[in-house]
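Weekly puzzle thread! Below is a chain. First person to post its structure in token form gets bragging rights.
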Amino acid sequence: MSGLVAKNLPRFHHVAPQATFIWDPSRFNRKSYATVSKPSAPVRKNIVYVDGVRTPFLLSNTDYSKLIAHDLARETLVNLQKKTGIPKDAIDYVIYGTVMQEVRTSNIAREAALAAGYSEHTPAHTVTMACISSNVALTTGIGLIHSGIYDTIVAGGVEFMSDIPIRHSRAMRSLMLRANKAKTPMQKLALLATIRPGHFVPDLPAVAEFSTNETMGHSGDRLAAAFKVSREEQDEYALRSHTLAAQAHQNGHFTDMVPFVVPGVKNAVDKDNGIRVSTKEQLAKLKPAFVKPYGTVTAANASFLTDGASAGLIMTEEKAKQLGLKPKAYLREFTYVSQDPKDQLLLGPAYAIPKVLEKAGLSLKDIGVWEVHEAFAAQILANLKALDSEFFAKTYLKRQQKVGVPDLKKWNAWGGSLSIGHPFAATGVRLATHTANRMIKEDQQFGLIAACAAGGQGVGMIMERHPDAKI
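Winning reply:
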């Protein structure tokens, strides 16, 4: 990993896993927690992550190109029920995230649930928060369970970049609406006579931040410059991500991925198709994708447009026992952060990680599994350097000391969004399932999820391995 981050960054030695899974809040100077309550404190329910599934993540305009987002979402709901064995009518609520909304299925959570055979009496709604939309689905579910309203919730996300909604221009839309109200042929002809060539220029979905009119790629280049992240470091990190993802595939670690039989495609889709292990020399030949000719973000060290869906089953621990299910993890803490959407658009993890660790009463050394969304290699490396910066800690985090650098041997050990793919709204649940599965395979107690999102926002989540956990 030489050259991956600044040479003076500390390296943490491997931390042995805890010998027991009994939650002891006194160890972390924690006042109360889910498994321990005080007479004066409200009792919080233990919420568990039973399991999760996903479709293979594919580059847009490949094998899923003739489908719609609804097809992918339905597939994950069907396969989650099959994998867990939970009766469909035992699901109290369904929440899905999506970013590029398909017009005909605006509440895709409801439409997909009905198509998957879930009860018509199971409510469902759709959420959006860019790259962390399915994190929002998960935490919305946590809130509904903690409120006592529901016990069992499916949370997921879907993104379909092979077909995005493209609108007529506003001028054309206005004309068409007025034409719809015109009562006589002469009125309609008069409106048609006002059409100009500019009316036919479509409104494409925004690729830039509304508040700054700047793309994420430009922000990635700015972060790289601000934190002195070189092109070589970015390419090396991208190569690391693809190499680890390829190894995870070969070793059978992606047990969350369910083969998808696509109509018209000869063989079932059974693997992610964006994983490409290249060489440093090949990566170095690519030209800048955003800031030309001097930028350092390229097509190879940035996440790519991806089609895919994911779904996870969460519920109270008590309900899981009643249903005879073996959960994989506890969902412990979460937090959302937001900051300057221009200069700090992609620094969500650097803000969320210390905040969620503090909420949980944990330290960097307690985390045995890190799953952090890889929007760009520059973004990941800038966040690592921010965590290791005394200046950043004192100036922006209002801390007396820097947070430090996580043990990179435990960081995205199965690859990440740069290689596996990044269907915007599906990545959050993919991160959660990989965290749960890695904690089991790597014999670790705690896992941390973090991600950045549009608008300068971010999320941090803590999971704890369940004592009954099995792959």
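Puzzle host: Confirmed. Bonus trivia for everyone else. The longest strand covers residues 306-316.
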